[in-house]
Amino acid sequence: MTEITASAGITVMLVEDDTAFQAAFALALEGAADVQLQAVAAAVRPALDLIAATPPDSAPDVLVVDLGMPDGSGLEVIAAAHARWPDCAVMVSTTFADQDNVIRSIESGASGYLLKDSAFVQIVGDIRSLYAGGSPISPRIARQLLMRMRAEPEEAPTPEVTPLPHALSEREKQTLELIAKGFSYGEIADLMSVSRNTVMTFVRRVYGKLEVKSKAEAIFEARSHGLI
């Protein structure tokens, strides 16, 4: 376990038992002046101890966690970090691609989910994206989430809602649903297999039909009209 110390730029803590992965991760971050590896824990227990001993104002900006650890599950670390360090962004980096682990990670507090087959050259960009409020997700995982969303049964009827004067198309509804789930425009483009410009066209149409000017307003109006 490495003690957390003050550092400039985006600070990162890694929870990973594979020493080869640790070394490759550290090497990938060495070339980035704005991203610093602040601490490393090789098991769940040391990670939990480090989280408990570190106050929120000294917490790393980003926590990268493997799920398969020798003494437990990385889900324990995610939940503890989310509770202790509410401003710390959490990203999973693992070989587990099953839907159960993906959903449980997100429910525990993770905002990103990358498979270890992702190129290390992209990891710094993914960390920057997560820190900026994005949700880096491996394409295979993104497709799983999209398929799950499509397969979910309809919710029970909600109380009476205000009808929308101009109905949204299916693609506009899909765009709106993904916006409400927190995906960036680039991620939505990947999920829908269209260009970012096409997504922006859908967004403009949605905003026009809902008569809004921001994501927050769009989500509020969509809920009031029973669209999400």
Model description:
By secondary structure, this protein is α/β, with parallel strands linked by helices. The chain has ten helices and seven strands. The protein has helices at 19-30, 44-53, 74-84, 99-108, 123-131, 139-151, 170-180, 185-192, 196-210, 215-224; strands at 10-15, 35-41, 62-65, 68-69, 72-73, 89-94, 112-115. The protein has a five-stranded parallel beta sheet with strand order 2-1-3-6-7, sandwiched between helices. A two-stranded antiparallel sheet has the order 4-5. Helix 2 (44-53) runs parallel beside helix 3 and helix 7 (170-180) crosses helix 9 (196-210). The longest helix is centred in the C-terminal third of the chain and has 15 residues, at 196-210. The model has no long low-confidence stretch (mean pLDDT 85).
